[in-house]
Amino acid sequence: MFILGSCSAESREQVLLTARQIKEACVNTPFIFRAGAWKPRTSPDTFQGHGEKALEWLAEAKQTYCIDIATEVATPEHVSAALKAGIDYLWIGARTSANPIATQAIADALKNADCKGVLIKNPVSEDPALWIGNIERLEKTGLPIYAIHRGCNHQPCWSMAHTIRTARPDIPLLIDPSHMSGDAAKIQSLLSKAAELHYNGAMIEVHPNPAEALSDAKQQITPNQLPNFILPILDNTPTFNEVELEWLRAEIDELDDRLWATIAARMDVSERIGVWKKAHGVQPLQPQRFEQILAQRQKWAALNNLPPEFVQQLFHLIHRESLNRQQ
Asked: For the chain, where do the domains classified as CATH 3.20.20.70 start and end?
């Protein structure tokens, strides 16, 4: 299942051009065409979408190119307008799915709705329980539900998605590499990882000219890139055991990335401490401070079932490099 299209419905011409170019690029691959009518942006001074007018352009693309269409909804009023315009799939974005009251209001508005399905992105925070709760809210509508894994703060958060896949293997899981990375250059590698993890498809932001996009310009690819991007998911069919191992490896890789990023950040702070100490005539090594932190880490090791000697050795290595940075 592929959901392809620009972040925003910017104009009638842009919507129709995008739909046509995607259809030409994906001759043998069915897809759902997407574009945002309402855009929940951080700043009120940025492009917020054209609202109901954009739904008319999506409906025209649907009729012209015989494709299903999808857009994001954030309120019951959005749901009503989208259904009236003939939108086939509605998706709930990460900011809305972070609010269970808002998600429930949308679920209530979708009861007895005439559409093909609802897509729910993970919340902006790494909260698998809330994501599952939102899926359960939407399931009560009787409509097909799809989970969209878009990560948090441009990080995959594989553990969260693994939790969903394990708890609800019956719910199709799609990857949103555009928001997961925030960088078009990283989309292909994320799609390859999604193939290894046996995702059920992808939601990818596609724009005829990303540099001129009114929103999310850096994370959109062009239609002619699509064939090479989506082939890995179509061609990869790992066994169940291989999939489970790849999920666990993905979690390890992400934890390692966080671990090393944290160590690098700690060294940066150590260098700044060194500058302060030199300016104030303080020696780099402060034995009392060292013993205090080491004792805290050893208590932490006991609470977290880690061997104290392992924690002590690791802390000594980190502290030694911190002192080197302060010389």
From this structure: 2-237
3-state helix, strand, coil in the chain (%, to 5): 55, 10, 30
User: 243-326: which CATH architecture?
Assistant: Up-down Bundle (1.20)
Predicted confidence (pLDDT) per residue in 189-221, tens digit: 999 999 889 999 999 999 999 999 999 999 999
CATH 1.20.59.10, the chain: domain bounds: 243-326
Of 173, 154, 178, 177, residue with least CA distance to 163? 173
Q: What is the pTM of this model?
A: 0.87
Q: How far apart, in Å, are the Cα atoms of 289 and each of 49, 60, 293, 294?
A: 54, 68, 6, 9
DSSP label of 203: E
Strands, DSSP E only, in 93-156?
117-121, 145-149
3-class SS of residue 121: strand
Amino acid present at 200? N
Distance separating alpha carbons of residues 165 and 146, to the nearest angstrom: 12
pLDDT band at 239 (very low <50, low <70, confident <90, very high): low
Which CATH number applies to 2-237? 3.20.20.70
For residue 240, the model assigns a pLDDT of 58
Residue where the block lists tokens 């880490």: 297
Cα–Cα distances in angstroms (integers) from residue 319 to residues 23, 168, 194, 279, 284, in the given order: 57, 44, 38, 21, 11
Count Cβ atoms within 10 A of the Cβ of residue 256 and give its class: 0-12 exposed, 13-18 middle, 19 or more buried: exposed
